[in-house]
Amino acid sequence: MSLIDYIDQDRLPKHIAIIMDGNGRWATSKGFERGEGHKEGVRAISRAVEAASKASVQYLTLYAFSTENWNRPEDEVNGLMDLMVYAISEETEELKKNGVKITCIGDMTRLPEYARTALIKCIRETETGKCITLNIALSYSSKWELTEATRKITDDVLKGVLNKDDISEETISMYLTTSGIPDPDLLIRTGGEQRMSNFLLWQCAYAEFYFTEVYWPDFGEKDLYEAIIDYQGRERRFGKISEQIELNCFESKPDEEQ
Ligand code: FPP
User: Which residues pair with 209 in a beta bridge?
Assistant: First the structure.
């Protein structure tokens, strides 16, 4: 039996989010430039998308570039932009063939024009993909997203489109960049660090966290399936006590359990 056979199809995480960390350390440990780690990181993305799709995961969100990453040395930022544009353009046909739908969250206005254009083209060309949604967090941070959502909500209240007393948790979710995408069930961080780094803070309120020492460029199918199997061993209580949790509670959220 291979590892995928140990995954319980009835308790699959619908949405997996990944903080892909360790590209730089992977490269340095091998005596390479940091950029080589990012290039190898792109290959790890292809493996992760293929493995997630094979396991019938519906949404995969990858933290590719944070708001804070704009503060990295200029040549690393430029190298990352070039690499992303190259990878996206090269992979579009393969993504279409494999039913991968690309979506993107983040502050696109900060991207250089050529990167934005390439991304929009890939999003359009893959929009009918039905197997898995690959959501790329680019120029993204949770604090940026929540600030933007607050501005939009305030605008709509002032315009009279939204009543202040009607603002609920669902309203806030609707104003986030992830509107329409279920919250992550499982958050994986590679590279040995154990922090959120400003990623999907609202959406991960009830995500299960999985940290691994494996550097992102080394992450593969086996690592993804180990994370899913570990997740399936957890009891998701959503604030309740064990006795209240029925056997099939894995996919239900507190409000759905009424
Ligand atoms: C974290 O490693 C990784 C990044 C900041 C960039 C990840 C981006 C890619 C793998 C390319 C994305 C491409 C597409 C098509 C979306 P790090 O550099 O922080 O590693 P370190 O902690 O070891 O220094």
Answer: 187
